[in-house]
Amino acid sequence: MTVPVVTELDIAELAAIAPDLDFADAERRAVLLESGSRDINAAPGSGKTTVLAAKLLLLGRKWTHARKGICVLSHTNVAREEIQRRLGASADGNQLLAYPHFIGTIHALVNQFLALPYMRSNGLEVDVIDDEVFSHRALAIACANWKFRAYMGKNAGVAPMVAGLVYRGPNLEVGSEGGSLPGPTAATRPFILDIKQKLTSQGIFRYADMFAYAERLLMTSPHLRDRLSRRFPVVFIDEMQDTSWEQERLLQLMFDDSVVIQRFGDVNQRILGNNEGAENLTFPKVDALPISTSKRFGPAIARAVAGVQLTGTPVVGENADQHAPMLLTYSTAQVGKAIPTFGMEVLKRFDDVALRSGAVKALCARKQGDAKKELPGRTLLDYWPSIGAEAKPAGPRFERFWSLVSGTGYSLQAAGTMAARAGDIRRAILMVLRAAGAEATKGLKDGQHLLRRLGDSGFDTKKIRLLMRDLAVAGDKATTEAGRKEVPRMLFDPLQSLLPVEMTPEQFVRMSVFEEPEAPSVGEAMGSVCSIEHCDRRVDVQIGSLASMKGETHLATLVLESYGWPGKRFDIKEALPVISQLSVRDPKLKESHLSQYRNLYVGMSRPTSFLCLAANAERVSDECKAALASLGWVVEHIG
Fold this sequence. Notes:
Number of strands: 19
Number of helices: 27
Strand order of the largest sheet: 15-16-14-17-18-13-19
CATH architecture of the largest domain: 3-Layer(aba) Sandwich
CATH superfamily of the largest domain: P-loop containing nucleotide triphosphate hydrolases
Shape: globular
Strand content: 5-15%
């Protein structure tokens, strides 16, 4: 088929379609005009997702195919939501949010078009796809066997291996994401394999299992590649650097050379992908188009970020500098003051209007670890111990009715499309019917099969489909007490004919499934926030892991030093001589050390206006501090 082409005239019309966007520079225009398969390697804060959204907007205006669509894949909800928001603002763009187009994660794509259809056609029921739930259930089975429990107690690597049991490849071979399985002749191997089989029979899977089932379908039905390629003649992939080799390989199996594939990312920000097979990754290709300028920050932060950049042209900051970068050093006894001191520095630099314009956050590459012999400054727990005391919910997200209805707790892999939202709503309705003892749901494990079961029995599902729609758009009701009283009443009439005949509306709304969610404990509410008050002013510093803040933009960011494993080095200690231009990075560094540079690159490129690093004073030389000061940094020590 003929794919629409973006022209210079189309770009000129962007001013009318999206007046807040500016694509006057040559690099961004080249990306918009590119009509073939190409990689785009973009600097942090370069607006690559905005460029992608603009390109989709222009293509949407020209798209005339009723059964062939554009496929857009993203790893982060931040990027997906920006794309959907921009497209939804116009009639032309809004068309791309529905059939035949697809906007979501690679996991959602694989599940919808390959894995789940294969599993259903082979009689496999799916109750839940979630790594955490699988790990919990697998370890519960393992611990129920006293001999195996004793074996795990003597061997620290066994529990992670059991928790990570996964299918791999088209032959569904059992492996583990948490370690190697015992050999074929090992006495424990049959028991371990049986754990995986039991959970499969219960419909409990890991995310990666879906890739194995998808690959099996492609092997047994090779014609599907041609059908997928014709269905999606254009594929865009955002955050490509976080695509694992397993995912990239599956995409290669899904789409042939007739498909135009454009991949957007920043190879220097690769921190989330699985390293297995990383040497085979192809992003970015040698002819990749660059977007080398950042609209997020100015030259001072750009120079600091460039110091930890591994490849490509050093990032250029196009914004005006706001505040000089800062290095905070702390004595071992004062490690807990790093975040509060940063908060005070933020209050000194920004007025209340500025503070309302952006987030203030502190991040660390590692949340916890066991490097007990090293001086504090190893993990986030050293800086803010209460982060480890956050109360965990009473059960997994999908097992709580109000979490399902509100849409809270989406995982990075599973979120991405309205299909994910609809799946939660189906499961919420199934939970209610189970709680009421509805005969129609006996033996039904998966909400995905609910409508099919009802339809096969002759039940008119129109009311339930309308209920699903109403619940999908009423997620905010689940977050208020008044709304939580209204939602059960919304359910009773559409579900009444499925309920026991003796059940009254009053009995229905009093079912335990509708009980008020527990209020968060003080530790949960405050464990990830440090509130600093001074002279009747206040700033809340949000605290979290680097991975939890990837893709975000902050007003001010504190990057806390961490201890790398298995590299056994402190990231800021190793990088400061390079950042301060006292030395150059060793070109022979191992991958574990390079990953620390990538972590710093991601963390240091979050702020628009104020970047601060914190490190133990014992690990920062006077020479390094002097060199940073000569480059315009502010260097201060915490008592």
